[in-house]
Amino acid sequence: MNMQTKDDRDKFHRKPLQVKAAQQLLAAYGKPGPIETVPLEESDGRYLAEEIRAPHPFPRFRRSGMDGYAVRSEDTASAGSDRMVWLDVIDEIPCGSVSGKTITPGTAARIMTGAQVPEGADAVVMLEMTELREHGGRMQMGLKRSIEPGKNVTPIGFEVQEGEILLRPGRRIRAGEISVLASFGVHRVPVYRKPRIAIFSTGSELLTVDEPLQPGKIRNSNTYMLASQVREAGGEPFILEAVMDELPLAKAKVEKALQEYDAVVTSGGVSVGDYDIMGDFVRSGSVDMLYNKIAMRPGSVTTAAVKNGKLLFALSGNPGACFVGFELFVRPFIQQALGSEQPYLTEWTAVLDRDYTKVNAFTRYVRGSVEARDGVLYAIPAAVDESSVMVTIKDSDCLIVVPPAKEATPAGSKVNILMLKGNRL
Ligand SMILES: Nc1nc2c(c(=O)[nH]1)N[C@H]1C(S)=C(S)[C@@H](COP(=O)(O)OP(=O)(O)OC[C@H]3O[C@@H](n4cnc5c(N)ncnc54)[C@H](O)[C@@H]3O)O[C@H]1N2
Ligand code: MOO
Ligand SMILES: [Mg+2]
Fold this sequence. Notes:
Layout: H1 6-12, H2 19-27, E1 35-39, E2 52-53, E3 63-64, E4 68-71, E5 85-93, E6 107-111, E7 123-126, E8 130-135, E9 138-143, E10 153-154, E11 165-167, H3 175-183, E12 188-192, E13 196-201, E14 206-207, E15 218-219, H4 222-233, E16 236-239, H5 247-260, E17 263-267, H6 277-283, E18 288-291, E19 296-297, E20 303-307, E21 310-315, H7 319-337, E22 347-352, E23 363-373, E24 376-381, E25 398-402, E26 414-419
Bound molecules: ligand LQZAQKY5, molybdate ion (MOO) and magnesium ion.
Catalytic activity: adenylyl-molybdopterin + molybdate = Mo-molybdopterin + AMP + H(+)
Pfam families: MoCF_biosynth, MoeA_C, MoeA_N
Pathway: Cofactor biosynthesis; molybdopterin biosynthesis
């Protein structure tokens, strides 16, 4: 039987840090950069690294909104149901062409949607409102309705003025942003390089996913789950081989990974057990420990340390705790490295759908699904949400934040939820 040592006493009496305080500690290390440029078609999902200003107004020319005729509105003033106004058609302007003619009194030009409205014209009449005839060897269009100035003409700069800021750094590039970039000719897009995150699990019980099961062993799921979370958060995951619960192995692996990658995420071995070597490692002095206990559940044993300005996130081995630890601490780091405007999970309010009976001294982050009923958001806690439970992670749209309470939280209570799915703003 082992005697209790000073180290044991240190690890048994850890001082828990609040989640927000831990996030603040970590924020000092989450700096955006470096910048790389990628082709526009590869920029989807990336984070813009430079401000984009409009080099020209948009639209850049007066644009027809209809297929029809470009006219001078004042020429149509006398048109009415019993009085047809006829105008000479002096040109035809397909999209992409610029007319060399000016619309003078008594004339019009046939024009297509998207084409540049010719000089002199200040309105476009849609084709369906007009008639066409040949008269004295000239083509004429007629209409029975007066047209107001500006009708069906999109003015220059209607959408964007020259010099206007269109996109700021840290903006996630999606379909709408890509449309902006393409419209202004940004074919090589400056983006923040994806932070390179090394991931490995610790645990002598771990098998690779393709190994047959053996007595007492389990397959390593956390590594792959974490890699998916890294990708979803905008980082680039690097899966390293899992290590046995032996301190020198883990120490060598972490130290090498910290040199080669932007951050290291491990799972397992952070509690107080005899083989919880990651806990021993962060207390060994080879890294500076930031914290080794958080006032939250699951994931109270979540640990972080720093070496040469680089972070080690030592997450719990319990899958549920590992998942939550990532979302609360690693995701913001990745998002900060991408210059994201909003690194933390978005907080919404919802109505708790059923009683949540567990009580705890720490804030709980309960996996739940979200449903909208009659415009009200309901949060439904997962049936089983123990830290060690893996299978309900897949069903969580959100984390329901249950503050420390001595009594159950009844159905109908207003709760804050952290959105996981559909959150990627
Ligand atoms: N005496 C105490 N025991 C425990 C405490 C405590 O305060 N006092 N805390 C409990 C809590 S809370 C948690 S959470 C766990 C944390 O455990 P560790 O982070 O040390 O993780 P391990 O011991 O390595 O593993 C825990 C559990 O998770 C499984 N595991 C580990 N790695 C993986 C992986 N890559 N993929 C899938 N599953 C994994 C492992 O087999 C264990 O079942 O400690 C409590 N104990
Ligand atoms: O770290 Mo443990 O999950 O608090 O459940
Ligand atoms: Mg353990």
